Amino acid sequence: MTDTSKLHYTAEHEWILVDGSIATVGITAYAAEKLGDVVFVELPEVGSTVAGGTVVGEIESTKSVGELFAPVNGTVTATNDAVVESPELVNSDPFGAGWLIKVEFDTLPTLLSQVEYSALIGE
b/e for 61-90, b at 16 or more Cβ within 10 A? Predict the structure, then answer.
C-alpha cells in the first residue's frame, strides 16, 4: 500500500506519485467507490504524448463510465497491463496494484495535497 500522504491529487480524482521526472497515476479510492465495480479499463499507448487536463483513458463500471485525465504534460512511459486484464484491481487496490499509467514530465503543475483533496471530497 502506498503512503497516501505522500501523493498529489487532482480535482478529477486522480492520484499522482512523483519519482524524479516520472508521475505514476491512478484514481483515488473515493473515485473507485463512486464508480462501483470496474469492468473495463482503456489506457493510452506507451510512447503517446498527453496534455495535462485532457482525457487519456476510460474506466467503465457496472454503474457508469469514468474518464482518466492526464494530470501532467508528458509522454506515457508505461501502462498497467494487469489492470487492463483484471479491471477489478482499480477497486481492490487503487493506490497500489491498481495504478494506471506512468508519464515522464518536465514540469509538475500545481496539484492538491492529501489534506486539500480530503476537503474537496468532504472527508
Answer: beeeebebbbbbbbebbebbeebeeebebb
What is the dihedral sign for C-alpha 18, 19, 21, 23?
A: negative
pLDDT tens for each residue of 73-94:
999 999 999 999 999 999 999 9
Distances (CA, A) of 94 to 41, 54, 107: 13, 21, 25
User: pTM for the complete prediction?
Assistant: 0.94
Name the residue among 5, 2, 59, 52 with its Cα closest to residue 32. 59
